[in-house]
Write a sequence for this structure.
């Protein structure tokens, strides 16, 4: 009777990336103030990164002898991306990154309008008129709220 569970696709890779991340955070935390004292500025990040490092080593130790799905690397990568990165999440993330980049060179209101418009059109599968109405109403509400209520002028 085999009671061992198979390791989900990408779990080992995630643990290795977590280990690399924890070592990087540990190094950065050490660069803040070293091991000077418990109340130094780098003490908290240093403690958190040590806990993260030990946790990721423990998880890798647990996964060491478990079975995988017996797939090749390419098939595992495709399955992992299909399971963990659905298309609508990837598209919306790219829209959000483009929005953050557009704020720098376009005005806040114009980039917010375009971001909302494209997001609503994509997520509602092409309903342009409702997206135009919702985006316009949202940007108008943001403008009125910040300009009139808070007296903050956004660029």
């Amino acid at each position: 009777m085999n009671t061992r569970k198979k390791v989900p696709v990408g779990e080992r890779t995630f643990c290795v990336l977590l280990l690399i991340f924890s070592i990087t955070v540990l190094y950065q935390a050490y660069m803040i103030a070293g091991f000077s004292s418990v109340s130094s500025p780098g003490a908290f990040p240093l403690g958190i990164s040590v806990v993260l490092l030990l946790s990721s080593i423990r998880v890798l130790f647990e996964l060491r002898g478990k079975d995988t799905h017996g797939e090749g690397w390419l098939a595992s990568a495709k399955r992992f991306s299909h399971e963990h990165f659905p298309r609508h999440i990837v598209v919306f993330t790219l829209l959000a990154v483009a929005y953050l980049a557009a704020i720098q060179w376009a005005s806040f209101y114009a980039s917010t309008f375009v971001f909302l418009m494209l997001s609503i059109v994509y997520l509602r599968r092409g309903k342009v008129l409702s997206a135009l109405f919702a985006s316009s109403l949202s940007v108008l509400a943001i403008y009125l709220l910040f300009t009139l209520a808070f007296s903050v002028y956004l660029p």
